[in-house]
C-alpha cells in the first residue's frame, strides 16, 4: 500500500494564472451564445439596408404586387422597374403544391412508422426516409430535370392533365415540362423527410394511456389513429406542416431546374414560371449593381415570409416539448 | 338489428359478449384497408431515394476515374478532364467553415447547457431552432451584402464562402451538441467538482469528452449539409475551373458550383461530368451521414 505524500496547503489555492480561467471561459461561451442573435440582427439590418433604394423607388406594396420586373443596369441610381409579384406568386404556388402532396404522405409514413411498422423494421425504414433530407438540393434538381421530368412528369402527369383538364385555367397547355407543378412535386419529395420526422416526434409524445383506453373500448387500430392520435396531435401537425412550408418557400437550386425561369406570370400550373429564390440564383451571376439591389429586395421579402412561418411553427411545436426533427436537418 | 340482438342473447337475456355488432365487419374492413394504404404510402416514400441513387450512379460512374479528381475542367463541349478545382475548393471551403462553425457551435451549446438560464438562453435556443429554417440563398445574399460588396468589400473568395457555409452549419452543430451535453449525467460534474476542478476544467475535461461521440455525429451531419450547398456559393464563391489557393479576393470553385454550371449547359460532355460530380458529392454525403449514424449508435450502445 502506497501512501501519497501529503499535499502542501498552497497548492489547493488557485494560482494566479488559472484564477481567471472560470470567468474568462464563462465570458467566452456567453459571447459565442450571443453570436446567433448578432448574426440574425445583422442579416436583417444589412439586407434591408441594401434593398432600401428599391423599396423606396417602388413603394412597399408596389414592389410586392407589381407584375413587371425590368432590371436596370445603372451603377448608382434606380432605372428599372421592380415588381416581384410573378416570383412571389410562383413561390407560393410551388410551395402549396408541394405541401398538398407531401402532407398526406408524411402523415401516412409517420403513422406507419409509429403505429404499424414491425419494431425491427422501424429504424431502418425511418433512416431511409430521413436519408432523403441529406441529398443535396442540386442532386434533386438534376435528377428531377434529367430523369423525373422526361420519364414521369411529362408523359404521366402534365400531358394527361392537359388533355383532360386543358379547358380549365389551372391546367392550360402547352406543356413544356418545366412548370410550377414539376417544381411543386420535387419540393414535395424534398420536404417529406422533415415533415415525417416532426410528425413522428409529435405522435411519439401522444398520450399512450389514451390510446390504450381507446383500444380497451374496442377501437380498431385505424380508429385509434383517426380519433385519438390525429386530433390530439393537431397543433404539432400544423407546426410540422409550417416547417415544411418554410423549407419549400426557400428551396433554391432544385426548383430552379424545374420551374423553368419564365419571367411572366401564368395562372396555369402546367406552365413554366419562377420563384423568388430561383430568380435570385438565376440572375445573380450576370447582375449589375442595381439588379443586385433588386435581388436583395426579393431576398428580404423571402426572409420575412420564411421567418414569420418558422417562428409561428416553432411556437406551435415547442408547446409539445422541443420537437426538432433533428434526424432530418 | 333488434331481432338479431334477440336471437344472439345469453340464457339470462343479456347480449352475448361474443356477439359482433352490425358494423363490425365494416370497421374491420376499413382497418385492413387503412393498414394497406399506410403501407403503400411508406413504400412510395422510399422510392425516390433509391431512384435518385440509381440514376446518379448510372449516369455518373463512367466519368469517375483518376483523371476526374486530378484534372481541371475543359470547355463544356469537350470530353475528359475533371473537377480537381472543385474538389480542392470544396475541401478548402469546408475546412475553413468547420473551423468556424464547430468551435462556435459547441461553445454556444456549452453556454446553453452549463450557464444559460432564464429568458436570454431561451431566446437563443429558440432562434437557433428558427435559424435552421432560413433559406440558404438568403444566407448567401446576406454574406454578399456584408462581406463581398457591402460593409466591407473583400470580393468573392474562399473565406466569404466559408462564412456562408458556416452560418448554415452553425445551428445544426449547436443543437446536436446541446442535446449531447444535456445527456451527460450531473453526477459526473459533481464528481469533478469534488476533486477540486473548476467549472471550466470540469466542462473541458469531463463533460466534453463524455459528449464527444454524440457531438461528432452532429458535426458530421452538419458537414453533410454544408458540403452540398449550392445556392449560397453562387453568391459568395462565384466559381472557378482552375485551382485557387488564395484565401480571399479570387473567385473560388466548388463541386456543387461546377455541377450547377455543367448541368445547365447544352453540351453532353459537360452534363456527363456534372453527373460524375453529383455522384462523388452524393458519395461524400452518404459516407458522412452513415458514418454519423454508426458513431451515434455505438455511443448510444456504450451508454445504454
From TrEMBL, chain A:
Classification via CDD domains: TM_PBP2 (cd06261)
GO biological process: phosphate ion transport
One matching Pfam family: BPD_transp_1
Entry annotated with the keyword Lipoprotein: no
UniProt keyword annotation of Transport present: yes
GO terms for cellular component: plasma membrane
Subcellular location(s) per record: Cell membrane
Chain ranges passing through the membrane: 25-45, 87-113, 125-148, 180-199, 228-249, 295-317
Keywords: Cell membrane, Membrane, Phosphate transport, Transmembrane, Transmembrane helix, Transport
Domain of life assignment: Bacteria
GO MF: phosphate transmembrane transporter activity
Membrane disposition: Multi-pass membrane protein
Domain (ABC transmembrane type-1): residue spans on this chain: 88-313
Main location: membrane
Record family assignment: Belongs to the binding-protein-dependent transport system permease family. CysTW subfamily.
Functional note: Part of the binding-protein-dependent transport system for phosphate; probably responsible for the translocation of the substrate across the membrane.
The protein's name in its UniProt record: Phosphate transport system permease protein
UniProt source species: Hoyosella subflava (strain DSM 45089 / JCM 17490 / NBRC 109087 / DQS3-9A1) (Amycolicicoccus subflavus)
Source organism phylogeny: Bacteria, Bacillati, Actinomycetota, Actinomycetes, Mycobacteriales
